[in-house]
Design brief:
Blueprint: E1 3-7, H1 13-25, E2 32-36, E3 48-54, H2 69-78, E4 85-91, H3 104-114, E5 118-119, E6 123-124, E7 136-137, E8 140-141, E9 144-146, H4 155-169
Parallel strand pairs: 1-2, 1-3, 3-4, 4-5, 4-9
Antiparallel strand pairs: 6-8, 7-8
Helix pairs in contact: 1-4, 2-3
């Protein structure tokens, strides 16, 4: 049983969060890969997948991350990911882009759902200050939103709590 942590980044912040999350989850015994995403076929080799995505193209209907994820969305949707647990974390700026906070998470989420993945890692929206986000589904974010621009003081506790949540929701993989 293995878990892969994949990210795409423009500024390096998403990679930094992926590395910090990898460190927290490495305290558990499951092998975990950590890589900049380059080929969707790598996703097939894991029972659990954790994806990191920034939001750059705020307000866009598609290709919201401005990273390699954008070119892979249709390929992800065409995969058979049934019986695979997938969690997503996203980076955004809740004060400058308060109406588009972490929107790219939802786009990636929708393609993993299309592929039949079992989505985990939802986070209550109540702990965040923002106006709107496409990533809010039924009053929860469809993953872990992080704001390294305006709320970096909250990041450590948020990723620590999320790592604990993933260990429960991806039981058997950690």
């Amino acid at each position: 049983m293995s878990v892969g942590i994949y990210f795409a980044t423009t500024t390096g912040k998403t990679e930094d969060i992926a590395e910090r999350l990898h460190q927290l989850l490495s305290e558990a015994n499951a092998p975990k890969d950590l890589a900049d995403v380059s080929d969707v076929s790598e996703l097939l080799s894991h029972e659990g997948i954790i994806c990191g995505i920034p939001t750059w193209n705020t307000g866009a209907d598609s290709e919201r991350s401005g990273t390699a994820w954008d070119e892979m969305l249709d390929d992800i949707g065409a995969l058979n990911l049934s019986r695979k647990k997938v969690a997503i974390f996203g980076l955004g700026d809740s004060s400058t882009y308060t109406e588009n906070f972490c929107d790219a998470m939802e786009e990636l989420h929708s393609y993993f759902v299309k592929a039949g993945a079992d989505m985990v890692g939802y986070v209550n929206k109540g702990d965040y200050t923002f106006e709107e986000s496409k990533s809010v589904i039924d009053e929860s974010f469809c993953g872990l939103p992080l704001d390294e621009d305006s709320e970096s003081d909250m990041t450590d506790i948020r990723i620590d709590n999320w790592a604990k949540q993933l260990k429960r929701e991806m039981s058997g993989l950690f």
